[in-house]
Design a protein that fits this description.
39% of the residues lie in helices and 9% in strands. The chain is of the alpha+beta class and 573 residues long. The chain has a four-stranded mixed β-sheet with strand order 9-8-7-10, with no helix packed on it. A two-stranded antiparallel sheet has the order 1-2. Strands 3-4 form a two-stranded antiparallel ribbon. The chain is globular, with a radius of gyration of 30 Å.
């Protein structure tokens, strides 16, 4: 079976009256004998698949990359069925048998044919969409899939959904969304500029376009843009630089033409990252494109010549067009008035540069080989994860301080209402990342290790507002900030320092009268108390819940327990 991509170039010579309705770049499946039907009103399965593909743009899949992916999935399924003598629209019994064999082939077949669980799930989802469409259009009488009923929550509304059983079970991830810690982020930023960890020139590396790499890398880390979004930005879409340096984030509009789902949004960036982009555009980029004779390759399509560009749009081949209406494929064909590509990042000669995955991969490999063996592999989307984590920390910092101040200055219940309804960090982060619903953001962040952020910011905000005593917060094995203070139990931090706990994360807290919100935040951050019995310690066994899983009280431990007077000290892992 042949997979081709439609182009209407030269359609006037095809002996047809009107231009075809098939979208540009639409995949087309063709049998090896180049026939689409076996007779009048007898279309072959490939022709039916082609009709389904042509309807994808109006069925929730507007991206050409999705069309190609869908076509390849169905093509591989059809080729597998043909190899085993099963038709695409065969009986349910034969289709189910073929699906079972296909699952085994993709799970334990030849190495080049094996799929990861996530890839297999994606293929099954696409095939399920195709068969449901085919049954609705009466091309098929059966499908190979079995479903179970489930109830899902969408935007706060429960709905009945069907769950395809032809999926592999996967372990629940702990922290599978990976991001760069601050020290590794700095290593990466310096590496993109060809610098060593101490900021000096890396004499063992001689790269090109280091200013460009550093500016765009900082931009990706500061805005959380997807790879497609920062790759196909135009210089005129970069917002103006504020007149003075500011710690306040600068709004950065993301044009709809390059976003996922064609949805306009506004993210933010730092003053430093924005200044780096402006420096690159005004100096290095201008020198690279000056007098460039670059033109897009013929296979990309005709050149789009730009005249009179401004922040909103320009004359493109003589017609005024807004930048937001241009797709990534059209943007890379733009030719600037002074010559060269119109994309933000250009390479030597003035052509567009889009190989950011390679730049990031080589930079991380060089850092790992020369400076830091633990440095992780960095791909463009990891920059988005890093932005999410840093932004969550930024939001939570201001969020908790505002909430703590309200508890101190106003009614606690009113503060809680404001906290829950008006200043939710997830809602802000949802808009910055461009998610359709906060449920997506929740799933995204649930897989991030946010515990240290919430704990540290809660501690700092509570101490600043006078809700907690900062002198009694101390991790196990370390002296407190007040150097071995004593808690209400009569035990010093040194007495608790030898207490073994998973992760060595025990913290001791002494509350002042603080109202509803502080207690609620403590439960939110720490979770339910572990290791301390609800009623205190067992007086009969003289075992203290705080001393950990029923350890006997030691001499000097009197004062613990609902037995011998436990003061209700709680600990959180």
């Amino acid at each position: 079976m042949i997979l081709n991509f439609f182009s209407s170039r030269g359609w006037q010579s095809w002996d047809i009256e009107h231009r075809p309705l098939i979208p540009e770049g639409m995949p087309v499946l063709i049998d090896n004998d180049l026939r689409f039907e076996d007779g009048p009103a007898a279309p072959r399965p490939a022709a039916v698949v082609n009709r389904w593909l042509r309807e994808l743009p109006s069925s929730g899949a507007p991206a050409p990359s999705s069309w190609e992916n869908y076509a390849r999935v169905v093509k591989e399924w059809m080729e597998f069925l043909a190899e085993h003598g099963v038709g695409l629209f065969d009986s349910r019994v034969r289709l189910k048998a073929a699906l079972s064999r296909y699952a085994e082939h993709r799970a334990a077949g030849p190495l080049k044919a094996r799929f990861a669980a996530t890839t297999w799930g994606q293929h099954m989802s696409i095939l399920s969409l195709f068969y449901r469409w085919a049954m609705h259009e009466e091309y098929a009488t059966a499908e190979p899939f079995t479903y179970r009923a489930a109830r899902a929550l969408f935007a706060g509304t429960g709905r009945e959904v069907k769950v395809n059983l032809a999926v592999r079970r996967t372990p629940k991830p702990h922290v599978t969304i990976k991001y760069l810690e601050p020290d590794f982020t700095e290593l990466f930023r310096k590496g993109l500029r060809g610098l060593a960890p101490d900021g000096s020139q890396d004499t063992g590396f001689h790269g090109r376009e280091l200013t460009r790499n550093g500016a765009v890398g900082d931009h990706a880390l500061a805005t959380g843009m997807r790879l497609q979004e920062f790759t196909y930005l135009l210089p005129w879409e970069i917002p103006a630089l504020p007149p003075e340096p500011t710690p306040v984030p600068v709004p950065f509009p993301v044009p709809a033409g390059i976003t996922k789902g064609k949805k306009f949004r506004t993210t933010w960036t730092s003053y430093e990252a924005l200044a780096g982009l402006h420096d690159y555009v005004e100096l290095d980029r201008a020198a690279t494109t000056d007098g460039s004779l670059w033109r897009p390759p013929r296979r990309w399509g005709e050149p789009l010549l730009v005249r009179e560009p401004d922040a909103r749009g320009g004359l493109i081949n003589g017609i005024r067009r807004p930048w937001e209406s241009l797709t990534p494929a059209e943007r890379r064909r733009l030719v600037a008035p002074e010559g060269g590509s119109c994309l933000l990042a250009v390479k030597n000669g003035g052509g567009p540069f889009t190989a950011w995955a390679t730049v990031f991969e080589r930079t991380s490999d060089r850092i790992r080989a020369r400076f830091e063996p633990r440095f992780p592999h960095v791909w463009p989307h990891r920059c988005r994860h890093t932005f999410s984590m840093r932004t969550l920390e930024y939001l939570v910092t201001g969020h908790y301080r505002q909430a703590a101040k309200l508890v101190r200055d106003a009614d606690a219940d009113a503060a809680l209402v404001f906290y829950l309804s008006k200043a939710d960090p997830l809602l802000v982060l949802r808009d910055l990342l461009g998610h359709s619903t906060v449920l997506t953001t929740e799933k995204y962040l649930r897989r991030l290790d946010t515990t240290p952020i919430f704990r540290e910011e809660y501690e700092g905000a509570g101490a600043e507002a006078g809700l907690t005593d900062p002198t009694t917060w101390a991790p196990i094995g370390k002296p407190s900030r007040s150097s071995m203070t004593t808690s209400r139990t009569g035990l010093s931090d040194a007495d608790h320092a030898d207490r073994p706990t998973p992760g060595n994360h025990l913290r001791v807290q002494r509350w002042k009268p603080c109202g509803v919100l502080a207690g609620w935040l403590a439960e939110l951050v720490a979770g339910p108390a572990v290791g301390h019995r609800p009623g205190g310690c067992d007086p009969s066994s003289r075992h203290c819940g705080f001393r950990g899983h029923g350890q006997p009280l030691r001499p000097g431990d009197s004062g613990h327990g609902a037995g011998p007077g436990c003061a209700g000290l709680r600990w959180w892992p």
